C-alpha cells in the first residue's frame, strides 16, 4: 500500500491554509483510521456516504482556491455528501444553477486518509479552466476512501481525466515561461522603470507561476497582465490584482528591434519545419511576440534561401582563434614516420650530447610542422617537449602539459610540476640527472569562460603521440624510465594497466628496457584528506628515491 497522509485536516489557527500539510505514514491494512470503526475505509453511521444526500453548493474565493476546496471537500466527504449532490463554483466559472446550503463543518478530530500523491495532483488540477474540475477532484476524494489504489489505475476515466488536466497545465506553464515578453515603461520622478507584459494563459496559473518570474527577474519591477488577474512585483513582494485588457500593456519598446534581429539571425531556413514550430510556438501567442512578425516572411523566403545555399556549396571552416600561430608553414606530411637523420645512440656507446640535442630539436620541429594534428591540439598555444640532459640516467614521463606548461612551453612548471620538483629534491634526485617530458605533447582542454579545463587524453591521443615519445626515449637513452600516472604507463606499454597494481616495481617493455610505474603528482593534489595526502606524498618520495637508486645501479643504455 502506498503511503497516505491526512492532508485534508483543517489548518491550524494562525497557519497558512494553502501550505502543504505534513505527511504521516499510512496505517497497516485492518487498523482503524478513526475511533468509529476497524476498517480503514469505513465511515461511521453518522458520516456514511449517503447519510446527507441533500444538495449543497460551494462558492470558492478564486478560480484556483485549493485551500478553500480542500476544506469544503473534506467536510463534505466526512459528512457523507456524495459528489453528485454538490454544486461547485468560483468567480471565473458559471454560477450554480440551484442554490443550496454550505457543507456542514467537519467534526472535531475527524480524519481522512488519502494517498500522498493526491494532494499534489489536486493542487495542480484545480488550476484547470474546466468548471467541472472541482467536482472531479471531489469524486476522486470520495472514491479514494474505498478504492485506496485508485490513482494507480491509469485507465480509470476520472484518473485519466485528472492526469490529462495536469499535463495541460504543465504545458501552459511552460508556454508562459517561454513567451512572456516584458516591455519597459519609464516612471516619473526618476523612479525605477516598470516592465509590463501581456499574456493570455489557457488556465488559472498566474499565482502558481509568479514565483518563477520573481526568481528570474528579481531585480526588475514588473507586472504581468492577463484577462483574469494580474501579478505585480516591487522587488520585495508579489501582489495580485484584477484582470486587465490587452490595451493596458505597452505595445512596443526599444528592445523590440533587438528581439527581431536576434530571431532573424538564428533562423535556419534549411531546417524549417512549420508544423513543429507552430506546435512549440502556437499561433495564439504570436501577437504578443515581437519576433513573430518576421515568421511569415522568413517562411516565404526559406525555399529561395535554401536553393542559394545549395548553389554556393560548402564553405571552408573559419580559422580557429588559437590556431598555431607559432607554427611555420610546411609541406603536407602524409605519414607519422620519424626523422632518421640522427639515429638513436648505439646501446652502451657514450652519448654524443651535441648530436642528441640536435636530434631532439629536429624531433620537435617535425611535430611543429605536422598538419595532421588532432583537432583539439590546434587550440593549444604550442607543443611542449621534454627538458633535461640527453643521456640522463632517469627519464620521467608525465601525462600532458597543463595550462601553465602550455603557456610557458616547458614541462612540469604548473601546480603538479612544482609538487613533483619538491618531491624530487626531497628524494635526493638532482634535475641534472633527470629528463622530464610528457606522453602527449599538447594541452587538451575545454574552454569554460576565462579558464581552460583540463581533459584527459584518450587512447587515440596517446597512440598519435606514441611514435614521438618512443623516438624521444631512444635519443635521450635513459637507464630507467619512470611513468607518472596511467597515461604515461599506457604510452610506454601500449596497453591500459592499473597503476596501483604495478606501482613501485621494475617492469620491462617489449624491447626489454626497464621502466618503473608510479602515480602522477596531480593525484596527490586531488586528495581531500590532509592526513591521507601527507601519507601518499611520503610514499611518492619513496618511489622517486627507489627509482633513482635503481637507475644509478643500471648500466648505461
TrEMBL record:
It comes from Roseomonas elaeocarpi. Residues 1-59, 85-110 are annotated as: Disordered. Residues 385-545 form the Uracil-DNA glycosylase-like domain. The keyword Chloroplast does not apply. Residues 32-41 have a biased composition (Polar residues). Pfam families: DUF4130 (PF13566), UDG (PF03167). It comes from the Bacteria. SUPFAM superfamilies: Uracil-DNA glycosylase-like (SSF52141). Transmembrane segments: none annotated. This is Type-4 uracil-DNA glycosylase. Belongs to the uracil-DNA glycosylase (UDG) superfamily. Type 4 (UDGa) family. Keywords: 4Fe-4S, DNA damage, DNA repair, Hydrolase, Iron, Iron-sulfur, Metal-binding.
Amino acid at each position: 500500500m502506498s503511503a497516505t497522509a491526512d492532508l485534508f485536516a483543517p489548518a491550524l489557527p494562525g497557519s497558512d491554509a494553502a501550505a502543504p500539510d505534513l505527511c504521516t505514514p499510512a496505517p497497516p491494512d485492518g487498523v482503524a483510521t478513526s475511533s468509529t470503526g476497524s476498517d480503514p475505509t469505513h465511515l461511521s453511521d453518522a458520516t456514511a456516504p449517503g447519510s446527507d444526500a441533500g444538495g449543497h453548493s460551494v462558492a470558492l474565493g478564486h478560480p484556483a482556491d485549493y485551500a478553500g476546496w480542500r476544506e469544503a471537500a473534506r467536510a463534505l466527504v466526512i459528512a457523507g455528501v456524495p459528489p453528485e449532490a454538490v454544486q461547485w463554483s468560483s468567480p471565473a466559472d458559471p454560477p450554480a444553477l440551484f442554490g443550496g446550503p454550505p457543507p456542514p463543518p467537519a467534526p472535531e478530530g475527524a480524519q481522512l486518509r488519502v494517498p500522498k500523491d493526491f494532494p499534489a495532483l489536486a493542487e495542480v488540477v484545480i488550476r484547470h479552466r474546466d468548471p467541472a474540475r472541482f467536482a472531479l477532484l471531489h469524486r476522486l476524494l470520495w472514491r479514494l476512501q474505498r478504492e485506496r489504489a485508485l490513482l494507480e489505475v491509469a485507465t480509470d476515466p476520472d484518473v485519466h481525466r485528472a492526469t490529462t488536466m495536469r499535463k495541460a497545465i504543465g504545458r501552459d506553464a511552460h508556454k508562459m515561461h517561454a513567451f512572456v515578453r516584458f516591455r519597459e515603461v519609464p516612471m516619473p520622478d526618476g523612479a525605477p522603470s516598470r516592465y509590463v507584459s501581456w499574456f493570455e494563459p489557457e488556465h488559472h496559473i498566474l499565482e502558481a507561476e509568479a514565483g518563477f518570474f520573481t526568481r528570474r527577474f528579481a531585480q526588475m519591477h514588473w507586472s504581468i497582465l492577463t484577462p483574469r488577474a494580474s501579478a505585480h512585483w516591487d522587488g520585495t513582494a508579489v501582489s495580485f490584482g484584477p484582470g486587465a485588457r490587452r490595451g493596458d500593456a505597452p505595445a512596443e519598446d526599444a528592445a523590440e528591434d533587438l528581439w527581431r534581429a536576434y530571431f532573424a539571425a538564428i533562423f535556419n531556413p534549411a531546417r524549417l519545419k512549420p508544423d513543429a514550430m507552430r506546435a512549440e510556438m502556437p499561433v495564439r501567442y504570436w501577437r504578443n511576440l515581437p519576433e513573430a512578425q518576421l515568421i511569415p516572411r522568413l517562411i516565404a523566403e526559406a525555399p529561395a534561401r535554401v536553393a542559394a545555399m545549395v548553389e554556393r556549396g560548402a564553405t571552408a571552416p573559419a580559422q580557429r582563434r588559437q590556431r598555431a600561430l607559432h607554427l611555420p608553414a610546411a609541406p603536407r606530411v602524409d605519414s607519422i614516420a620519424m626523422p632518421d637523420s640522427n639515429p638513436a645512440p648505439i646501446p652502451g656507446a657514450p652519448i654524443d650530447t651535441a648530436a642528441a640535442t640536435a636530434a631532439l630539436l629536429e624531433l620537435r620541429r617535425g611535430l611543429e610542422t605536422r598538419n595532421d594534428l588532432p583537432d583539439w591540439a590546434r587550440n593549444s598555444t604550442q607543443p611542449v617537449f621534454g627538458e633535461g640532459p640527453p643521456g640522463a640516467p632517469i627519464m620521467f614521463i608525465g601525462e600532458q602539459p597543463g595550462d601553465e606548461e602550455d603557456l610557458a612551453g616547458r614541462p612540469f612548471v604548473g601546480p603538479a610540476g612544482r609538487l613533483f620538483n619538491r618531491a624530487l629534491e626531497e628524494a635526493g634526485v638532482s634535475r641534472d640527472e633527470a629528463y622530464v617530458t610528457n606522453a602527449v605533447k599538447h594541452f587538451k582542454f575545454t574552454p569554460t569562460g576565462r579558464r581552460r579545463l583540463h581533459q584527459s587524453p584518450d587512447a587515440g591521443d596517446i597512440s598519435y603521440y606514441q611514435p614521438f615519445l618512443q623516438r624521444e626515449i631512444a635519443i635521450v637513452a635513459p637507464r630507467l624510465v619512470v611513468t607518472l600516472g596511467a597515461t604515461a604507463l599506457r604510452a610506454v606499454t601500449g596497453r591500459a594497466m592499473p597503476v596501483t597494481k604495478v606501482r613501485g616495481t621494475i617492469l620491462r617493455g617489449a624491447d626489454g628496457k626497464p621502466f618503473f610505474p608510479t602515480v602522477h603528482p596531480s593525484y596527490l593534489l586531488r586528495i581531500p584528506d590532509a592526513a591521507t595526502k601527507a601519507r601518499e606524498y611520503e610514499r611518492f618520495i619513496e618511489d622517486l628515491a627507489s627509482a633513482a637508486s635503481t637507475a644509478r645501479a643500471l648500466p648505461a643504455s
